[in-house]
Amino acid sequence: MKNFATKIVDFLKEEDGPTAVEYAVMLALIVVVCIGAVQSIGTNASAKFTEVAGAIGGN
Q: CA 32, CA 25: separation in Å to the nearest integer?
């Protein structure tokens, strides 16, 4: 029984599992920020292209 308890304590002390979860959470946050940045840049670029097209078409 003592061997079983020792194995459980060793398992709880391991940091491999939480580290993998932390990396997954960081990756998810980075992806969300990148998607937001690309979307914002796309919206601004689209507005600028529309503005330029209007200026060219008006002349």
A: 11
Model pLDDT for residues 10-30, shown as the tens digit of each residue: 877 776 666 778 888 999 999
User: Of the candidates 37, 34, 57, which has an alpha carbon nearest to the alpha carbon of residue 45?
Assistant: 37
DSSP structure string for 10-31: HHHH--HHHHHHHHHHHHHHHH
As given in the structure block, the two tokens for residue 42 are: 């796309």
User: What are the angstrom distances between the C-alpha of 27 and each of 20, 38, 39, 40, 46?
Assistant: 11, 16, 18, 20, 28
18 vs 42, higher pLDDT? 42
Number of H helices, E strands in the chain: 2, 0
Task: Please state the pTM of the whole predicted model.
Answer: 0.57
